[in-house]
Amino acid sequence: MRLLLRILLVLATGGLVVLTFLSVLETNLWWVRMTDFPRLQYALALVALLVALALARPAGRGLRLGLAALALAALGFNATRIAPYFYTAEGDAQASCPAESRLRVMVANVKRENRRAEPLLALVEARAPDVLLALETNAWWDERLSPLSSTMPHAVSEISADHFGMHLFSTRPLEGAEAVFPVAQDTPAILATVRLPSGEGVRFIGLHPRPPHPGQSATGRDGELMWAAMQARGSQAPAVLAGDFNAVPWERTVERAQRIGALLDPREVAGFLPTYDAKSWWMSWPLDQVLHQEGLRLAGMRVLEGFGSDHYPVEADLCLEPAGRPAPVLREDDLAEAERSMEAARAEPGKG
User: Fold this and answer.
1) In 3-state terms, the chain is what percent helix, strand and coil (to 5)?
2) What integer pLDDT is reported at residue 151 of this predicted model?
3) Order of strands across the sheet with 174-180?
4) I need a surface site. Which of 36, 72, 88, 196 has the fewest CB within 10 A?
């Protein structure tokens, strides 16, 4: 019995330590990169493991201390990665903004197979976003979302039979709006300049790259995120990068995108705010994001109620005035790494 207990403790500790540190490896293998997602789950499991180690006296003091040291190191690493998203300054994030300078952005991954369009339409009516980015849309969703044109007459879309259709609706005029296919990938992105009532413009970049999963590496996703960051970097107007990134904010690719595009993450003010999986009690990851440059201030961010999709919609209120906090600083190798990621995505077989 004592031997079995020791084996179980060693396996549990070893597994959690390996999962914690595996994504440090510089690789685009899907199963490695996916280990970056459940940092919160790792942390909770490690806390439970430490309690078990404290109680498992028959396993021996020396073994328990050694395993506890490993578990504490892994817990510290996970906590460091997710800690910025658990500090909230809600009071600072709820300041008012003049209507002529406000941009309310809603992102909703509808899930292509979902057939509950009415709750989404009711949610859009209730929340009155200035811009709605709907993802995973197809011909069915194109028809069901058409009533939005009465209140959001400015639109651009790319309808797909796959899971990567995209619709952008806006109450504000859109200039130069187009759907493009970044870095030879077969998933569209949307570029547009949103003209606010003040007369000033905001550059909008909508994105939904393919996720890493069996048979599909993180190469295309990372290349598209780098492309979007470069678009933000070259923008003359303050830029917003929004969508279902299929990446969590603490991944190195997202952090690099923030540095390259001088982009701020509202979750560092508003909190963790998971959006996926709306149908699971244990998968809780912030995949749907709205990043913005320093020329825009966060006036509020929230996750909205579900409407049948596996994603909750997310909403961010932005104000066209200085953010009041600095964007992350570009590192020496960031631009070179971005170029390598984009080239790798262009060379990826079967895409384009």
Assistant:
1) 40, 20, 35
2) 97
3) 174-180, 189-195, 201-207, 239-244, 288-293, 263-264
4) 72
Which CATH class for the 92-347 domain?
alpha beta
Beta strand 174-180 pairing with 189-195: antiparallel
Residue 35 corresponds to which tokens in the numbers above? 């280990």
Give exposure, 252-265, as e/b (b: 16+ Cβ within 10 Å).
ebbbbbbbbbbbbb
Judge whether 128 and 315 are in contact, CB under 8 Å.
no
Of 250, 251, 238, nearest in space to 320 by CA: 238
The identity of residue 316, as a single letter, is: A
Q: Which residue type, as a one-letter code, is found at position 153?
A: P
How many C-beta atoms surround the C-beta of residue 52 within 10 A?
Answer: 18
**281: helix, strand or coil:** coil
- CB-CB neighbours of 175 under 10 Å: 13
d(CA 322, CA 324): 6
Q: What is the pLDDT of residue 348?
A: 83
CB 281 within 8 A of CB 325: no
**3-class SS of residue 264:** strand
CA distances, 267 to each of 241, 284, 288 (Å): 14, 14, 11
Residue 136 to residue 165: CA distance in whole angstroms: 5
Tokens of residue 284, six digits? 């809780």
Instruction: Identify the pLDDT of residue 221.
Output: 97
Distances (CA, A) of 319 to 92, 97, 173, 221: 13, 6, 17, 29
Q: Which of 316, 306, 241, 315 is nearest to 277 (CA)?
A: 306
- Nearest-angstrom CA–CA distance, 352 and 348: 9
Name residue, tokens 């690493």.
Answer: 77
Pairing outcome for strands 174-180 and 166-170? unpaired
Q: Where are the domains of the chain?
A: 2-85, 92-347
pLDDT at 16 over 60: yes
**Per-residue pLDDT reduced to its tens digit, 47-102:** 999 999 999 998 899 999 999 999 999 999 999 999 999 876 544 445 678 989 99
pTM of this structure: 0.94
